[in-house]
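Researcher: Structure for this, please.
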Amino acid sequence: MKKIFYKPVVTVSCFLALTSGPVLASGSKAAKPSPDEAIAMLKAGNERFVIGKTTQPHTNAARLALAGKEDQGDHAYATVISCSDSRVPVEILFDAGIMDIFVIRVAGNVLDVDEAGSVEYGLAHVNTPVLVVLGHTQCGAVTAVTNAVQGHGHPLERNIPPLVDNIIPAVKKAIANNPGAHGADVIPYAIEENIWQGIEDLFMESPVSRDLVKAGKAKVIGAIYDVSNGKISWLPEEKTVEILKKVEANPKRAMEGMAK
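Model: Predicted structure, C-alpha cell format:
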C-alpha cells in the first residue's frame, strides 16, 4: 500500500487550528472547524508527533478546569474509532489533548452496533465535523481472522468470534482482490479492507451518519497508523464517497434514523 506523508498548507484562517486546536471564538468556547480543516489539524498533529515536535496542547490544569465546566461538544473537533491495541495511543499520535478528540476503541476497529451508536453520538451530539476510521499495521484482530479464513485459525474465547466477525468480509475481499497474496501477505490488504468494511457497516446501519456526510456537515475518512514509526497513511476520500453511493442504492440499508 502506498504511504502518504502529508504536509499541510497553512492559511491565515486555520493557522491556530493547525498548531494548537480549534480557533477560539468569544469567551472560552471554540468555534468548530470545517471537516477539511479538522482533517488538516489531525494530519498536522500526526506530523508533529512523527518528527518529535509535539506541542502537547490542552493538557494543563486550565484545560482540566474547563472540562469540568463546559461541554465537550463545544470543543472536540474529531471522532476517531481505533483499535484497542496499546500501540495506538490516539490522542498522543495526533498531538491532541483534553476535549479535542472523541475516541472509540475496540479490538479490530470494527463498526458494529455499539460502535455505530458511539459514532452517532460523536457526530450528532459532540458535533465533530470528521470521523476517522483508524486501522493499524500488525493488527492482531485482523491477523487472527485472516488466519482463520485461510484455514489456520485456533480456538478463541467465546466472546471473541462475535466481536471480530465483521472483519471476515474484509479478509475475503482482500483475498479475492489480491490473488497473488497468500498467508501473512494477505494481512496488509485485509487491514485496509477492514477500514472500508467498517465505513460500509456504519453507513448501512446509521442513516444519521449518512445524512451528515451528504449534507457536508461531516466527513468520514480512513487511515492506517504504522506502529513502527508513528506515521499515518491517509486513504482516499473518494473511496468513502463510492461506499456511500453504494449503500444509498442498497435497499437493505437502515432507513429510520431515530430510535423508537
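Researcher: Any notable elements?
Model: Confidence is low (pLDDT under 50) at residues 1-27. The first helix runs from residue 15 to 20.
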